[in-house]
Amino acid sequence: MKYHKSIFIFIFLSLTVLTKAQTDSINFHSKDSLKNQKDESGKIFTNAEQMPSFPGGDAKLFKFLKKIKYTKQARRNRITGKIYVTFVINKEGKVNDAKILRGLGYGLDEEVLRVINKMPVWIPGRINDRRVSVQYNLPVNFNLH
Fold it and tell me: pTM of this prediction?
Protein backbone atom coordinates (compact mmCIF):
# COMPACT_ATOMS: atom_id res chain seq x y z
CA MET A 1 0.00 0.00 0.00
CA LYS A 2 2.91 2.32 0.75
CA TYR A 3 4.12 2.02 -2.87
CA HIS A 4 0.70 2.87 -4.27
CA LYS A 5 0.44 6.04 -2.18
CA SER A 6 3.88 7.19 -3.36
CA ILE A 7 2.98 6.70 -6.99
CA PHE A 8 -0.38 8.43 -6.51
CA ILE A 9 1.14 11.48 -4.82
CA PHE A 10 3.74 11.94 -7.52
CA ILE A 11 1.23 11.37 -10.33
CA PHE A 12 -1.09 13.93 -8.71
CA LEU A 13 1.65 16.55 -8.41
CA SER A 14 3.01 15.88 -11.89
CA LEU A 15 -0.40 15.93 -13.53
CA THR A 16 -1.36 19.12 -11.69
CA VAL A 17 1.78 20.85 -12.97
CA LEU A 18 1.32 19.39 -16.46
CA THR A 19 -2.34 20.44 -16.66
CA LYS A 20 -1.44 23.95 -15.49
CA ALA A 21 1.36 24.14 -18.07
CA GLN A 22 -0.91 22.95 -20.87
CA THR A 23 -3.63 25.40 -19.80
CA ASP A 24 -1.11 28.24 -19.57
CA SER A 25 0.19 27.44 -23.06
CA ILE A 26 -3.28 28.12 -24.42
CA ASN A 27 -2.99 31.69 -23.19
CA PHE A 28 0.01 32.30 -25.45
CA HIS A 29 -2.22 31.82 -28.50
CA SER A 30 -5.00 34.20 -29.31
CA LYS A 31 -8.37 32.73 -30.18
CA ASP A 32 -7.82 34.13 -33.70
CA SER A 33 -4.68 32.04 -34.13
CA LEU A 34 -6.59 28.95 -32.98
CA LYS A 35 -9.32 29.73 -35.53
CA ASN A 36 -6.72 29.85 -38.29
CA GLN A 37 -5.51 26.33 -37.46
CA LYS A 38 -7.54 24.06 -39.68
CA ASP A 39 -8.46 20.67 -38.32
CA GLU A 40 -7.25 18.73 -41.29
CA SER A 41 -7.78 15.00 -41.25
CA GLY A 42 -5.36 13.58 -38.71
CA LYS A 43 -4.34 16.94 -37.26
CA ILE A 44 -3.27 16.61 -33.62
CA PHE A 45 -3.20 19.71 -31.45
CA THR A 46 -1.04 20.24 -28.37
CA ASN A 47 -3.52 22.74 -26.94
CA ALA A 48 -7.13 23.65 -27.52
CA GLU A 49 -9.67 26.21 -26.38
CA GLN A 50 -11.26 23.43 -24.32
CA MET A 51 -8.79 20.70 -23.39
CA PRO A 52 -9.97 17.08 -23.19
CA SER A 53 -11.10 16.03 -19.75
CA PHE A 54 -11.26 12.70 -17.98
CA PRO A 55 -14.83 11.63 -17.14
CA GLY A 56 -15.45 12.71 -13.55
CA GLY A 57 -12.57 15.21 -13.55
CA ASP A 58 -9.06 15.10 -12.14
CA ALA A 59 -10.06 13.27 -8.96
CA LYS A 60 -11.35 10.33 -11.03
CA LEU A 61 -8.24 10.44 -13.22
CA PHE A 62 -5.97 10.23 -10.18
CA LYS A 63 -8.02 7.35 -8.84
CA PHE A 64 -7.75 5.58 -12.19
CA LEU A 65 -3.97 6.09 -12.33
CA LYS A 66 -3.63 4.32 -8.98
CA LYS A 67 -3.89 1.15 -11.05
CA ILE A 68 -0.23 1.65 -11.98
CA LYS A 69 1.75 -0.80 -9.87
CA TYR A 70 5.43 -1.23 -9.11
CA THR A 71 6.66 -4.39 -10.78
CA LYS A 72 8.44 -7.00 -8.66
CA GLN A 73 11.57 -6.59 -10.77
CA ALA A 74 11.64 -2.79 -10.29
CA ARG A 75 10.97 -3.08 -6.55
CA ARG A 76 13.68 -5.74 -6.15
CA ASN A 77 16.19 -3.48 -7.96
CA ARG A 78 14.98 -0.36 -6.08
CA ILE A 79 14.26 1.51 -9.31
CA THR A 80 13.00 5.05 -8.89
CA GLY A 81 12.53 7.89 -11.31
CA LYS A 82 10.15 9.35 -13.82
CA ILE A 83 8.55 7.85 -16.91
CA TYR A 84 7.29 10.24 -19.57
CA VAL A 85 4.35 8.93 -21.57
CA THR A 86 2.54 10.63 -24.45
CA PHE A 87 -0.87 9.80 -25.84
CA VAL A 88 -3.58 11.36 -28.00
CA ILE A 89 -7.19 11.91 -27.01
CA ASN A 90 -8.90 11.70 -30.39
CA LYS A 91 -12.08 13.47 -31.56
CA GLU A 92 -14.18 10.66 -30.09
CA GLY A 93 -12.38 10.90 -26.74
CA LYS A 94 -10.51 7.61 -27.11
CA VAL A 95 -6.88 7.18 -26.04
CA ASN A 96 -4.64 6.49 -29.05
CA ASP A 97 -0.94 6.17 -29.80
CA ALA A 98 0.31 5.82 -26.23
CA LYS A 99 4.11 5.77 -26.27
CA ILE A 100 6.90 6.03 -23.76
CA LEU A 101 9.02 9.12 -24.40
CA ARG A 102 11.51 8.28 -21.66
CA GLY A 103 11.29 5.13 -19.61
CA LEU A 104 12.87 3.33 -16.70
CA GLY A 105 12.65 -0.29 -17.82
CA TYR A 106 12.19 -3.19 -15.38
CA GLY A 107 8.63 -3.64 -16.62
CA LEU A 108 7.53 -0.18 -15.44
CA ASP A 109 7.22 1.24 -18.97
CA GLU A 110 4.90 -1.59 -19.97
CA GLU A 111 2.89 -1.15 -16.77
CA VAL A 112 2.32 2.55 -17.45
CA LEU A 113 1.26 1.80 -21.05
CA ARG A 114 -1.05 -0.98 -19.84
CA VAL A 115 -2.96 1.41 -17.59
CA ILE A 116 -2.97 4.35 -20.04
CA ASN A 117 -4.37 2.10 -22.79
CA LYS A 118 -7.22 1.00 -20.49
CA MET A 119 -8.45 4.55 -19.88
CA PRO A 120 -12.15 5.11 -20.51
CA VAL A 121 -13.41 7.51 -23.17
CA TRP A 122 -12.60 11.14 -22.34
CA ILE A 123 -14.58 14.29 -23.13
CA PRO A 124 -12.79 15.42 -26.31
CA GLY A 125 -10.99 18.72 -26.77
CA ARG A 126 -12.61 21.49 -28.77
CA ILE A 127 -11.56 24.39 -30.96
CA ASN A 128 -14.24 26.69 -32.35
CA ASP A 129 -16.85 24.32 -30.94
CA ARG A 130 -15.46 21.47 -33.06
CA ARG A 131 -13.99 18.31 -31.58
CA VAL A 132 -10.25 17.94 -32.15
CA SER A 133 -7.54 15.42 -31.31
CA VAL A 134 -5.19 16.60 -28.56
CA GLN A 135 -1.81 15.19 -27.49
CA TYR A 136 -1.04 14.79 -23.78
CA ASN A 137 2.35 14.26 -22.18
CA LEU A 138 2.21 12.78 -18.72
CA PRO A 139 5.09 12.27 -16.27
CA VAL A 140 4.65 9.31 -13.93
CA ASN A 141 6.95 9.25 -10.91
CA PHE A 142 8.08 6.09 -9.17
CA ASN A 143 9.51 6.47 -5.69
CA LEU A 144 10.16 3.86 -3.03
CA HIS A 145 9.87 4.90 0.61
Answer: 0.71
d(CA 124, CA 50): 8
- What is the β-pairing status of strands 130-142 and 81-89? antiparallel
pLDDT tens-digit series, residues 37-72: 444 557 999 999 999 999 999 899 989 999 999 999
Give bridge partners of residue 88 from the DSSP assignment.
96, 135
Let me know: does 83 contact 109? Beta carbons within 8 Å: yes
Cα separation, 100 vs 44, whole angstroms:
18
Residue 43, CA atoms < 13 Å, CB-side half-sphere: 15
Q: Which of 51, 48, 27 is nearest to 37 (CA)?
A: 48
- Nearest 5°: the CA angle 84, 85, 88 is 145
